[in-house]
């Protein structure tokens, strides 16, 4: 079964409430391809490797979390940007990208989906009412030793997290997928035992140590694999489409 590209985009935009969130990039249809859609390929970042895989998979739409046209970047269509856009246009594939709206969504969002993977019960937002603070706060049903939780993260995400020691036993966790290390202060203020994100900065170590909170950086890519999969599955069910998630390895 095929549907109109416009119908798919309208539903995705509505479901993620994109007009309510100010972002660093355009959310929604970034590159227009063929007008009818049967197959969605999803992935974390619209890299050349993912584009090539989408071509091989005969995608009509490529659905990603990290797309193009970020604020402050060079607007010239040269180098890798030219090659990426050429791949999409030559193969008539649409690029559909959602950044912050996909992070914060209460059902398919990156943060909610990561909590489901790791067994964290969501209590609320790190900073209620501020859509720019996309992190969440929650608890483990049963307290765990920090090293035991680190092993759980490694088993689920397939990579060993960077760990800054803190409380030996953790229950209350703050987290933000991707490059959310800057929100550690929100987790500290909320009384979290652990703050979990994708990346770390030099100053993150000192913030954690001096405030007595444990910290884990589990990988930007690794922590953001689940939202786009869930969104792709939602759209596939909604319109009876084919959906394939392709995970292009990224150690960062």
From TrEMBL:
<dbReference type="Pfam" id="PF01784">
    <property type="entry name" value="DUF34_NIF3"/>
</dbReference>
<feature type="binding site">
    <location>
        <position position="66"/>
    </location>
    <ligand>
        <name>a divalent metal cation</name>
    </ligand>
</feature>
<dbReference type="InterPro" id="IPR036069">
    <property type="entry name" value="DUF34/NIF3_sf"/>
</dbReference>
<dbReference type="GO" id="GO:0005737">
    <property type="term" value="C:cytoplasm"/>
</dbReference>
<keyword id="KW-0479">Metal-binding</keyword>
<comment type="similarity">
    <text>Belongs to the GTP cyclohydrolase I type 2/NIF3 family.</text>
</comment>
<feature type="binding site">
    <location>
        <position position="224"/>
    </location>
    <ligand>
        <name>a divalent metal cation</name>
    </ligand>
</feature>
<dbReference type="InterPro" id="IPR002678">
    <property type="entry name" value="DUF34/NIF3"/>
</dbReference>
<feature type="binding site">
    <location>
        <position position="65"/>
    </location>
    <ligand>
        <name>a divalent metal cation</name>
    </ligand>
</feature>
<dbReference type="GO" id="GO:0046872">
    <property type="term" value="F:metal ion binding"/>
</dbReference>
<feature type="binding site">
    <location>
        <position position="220"/>
    </location>
    <ligand>
        <name>a divalent metal cation</name>
    </ligand>
</feature>
<protein>
    <recommendedName>
        <fullName>GTP cyclohydrolase 1 type 2 homolog</fullName>
    </recommendedName>
</protein>
<feature type="binding site">
    <location>
        <position position="103"/>
    </location>
    <ligand>
        <name>a divalent metal cation</name>
    </ligand>
</feature>
